[in-house]
Every structure is written in structure tokens, then in C-alpha cells.
Amino acid sequence: MLVDTSDNFSKSDCYDIETKNRIELKCRAAHYDKLIIEKPKYEYLIKESKKFGDVPIYINSTPKGIFLFELEDLKLKWFKKPLPKTTDFENNNLTNKEVATININKSKQLK
Fold first, then answer.
1. Calpha distance 43→46 (Å, rounded)
2. Three-state secondary structure string covering 35-79
3. Which of 11, 33, 40, 50 has the most crowded CB, counting CB atoms within 10 A?
């Protein structure tokens, strides 16, 4: 059973009570073989999951499928990249964000 955790203060989107998965969801309009995760989001999911004994999960939907990543299993290389400051599409101001790329071959493809 999924519980919505995407209020203004949460840094994850949902929680699966049965599997104890703490989940961040992203929907991409285009397909990329390497998907981006922001470091603050990653660190939050890892920290909260360790605190509560959960599994941190990152799920990306693209036109070519749905890809699930178990974050604890990944070794990530962080770098700065200019990206939109917010997901508000009217605000196209860029800021340097610390991110890592995750190749879809490291995922479990759900669809």
C-alpha cells in the first residue's frame, strides 16, 4: 500500500508500507540511458531509510519504460551541472546542482 508523502516538507514522493520502500518518482518526457539524481534527494532517501530500516528507491518513467533503482546498491560519482532552479517550468533560471547519473542498465525495468 502506497502512502503519499509529497507534502511541502517531504523530500520523497511515497512510501510502500508492505515493502518498506521509501520512493522518489520522476517522469521524463524524453528517454535517456543515463538518468540524473540530485545529491540532496539521494542523501535524504539514504538517511531516512537507514533511520527507519527502509529501502531507498528511485523510479524513473521515460517513453521507453519504467526503471527502478535500489539506491543502496549504487556507487555514484557526483558533479555539478547547471539545471533549472525549480521544476516550475515558467522559471527557467539555472543554478549549479550537485548530481550523479545512473545508467538504466543498473535498474530493474518494470515496464
1. 5
2. EEEEHHHHHHHHHHHHHHCCEEEEEEEECCEEEEEEHHHCCCCCE
3. 11
Instruction: Say what the pTM is.
Output: 0.84
Domain-wise residue ranges, the chain:
2-109
**What dotted CATH number matches 2-109?**
3.40.1350
Q: Is residue 100 over pLDDT 90?
A: yes
C-alpha 48: how far from its chain's center? 14
